[in-house]
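User: Predict the structure for this protein chain, please.
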Amino acid sequence: MSSDGWKFTLTPLTKEEEDIILAVDPKYERGTQGMFHPPGTLLSADKDKVNKMLNFEVHEDDIYIITPPKCGTTWMQEIVWLMNNDVDLERAKEPQV
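Assistant: Here is the predicted structure, written as structure tokens:
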């Protein structure tokens, strides 16, 4: 697949790579394109997903919550929400849509 101006090229995953992904993610669909970025890290993606990722609009006031899996991500999201909303505990009890 051509790079279409990207700084990398998407390459088809091998059957072995897809088998590894399917062992972890049974919803994975065979035939999806894949790429290695950074070196040694497999990221399955198709061209549309990569375009969305590369064209994602970042704002100056964006907040990124990055935690390892199973290490309190939801809890951290709640803390950050409270900090950004003047610790409004009553509003925090309301369902968020």
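The first helix runs from residue 15 to 24.
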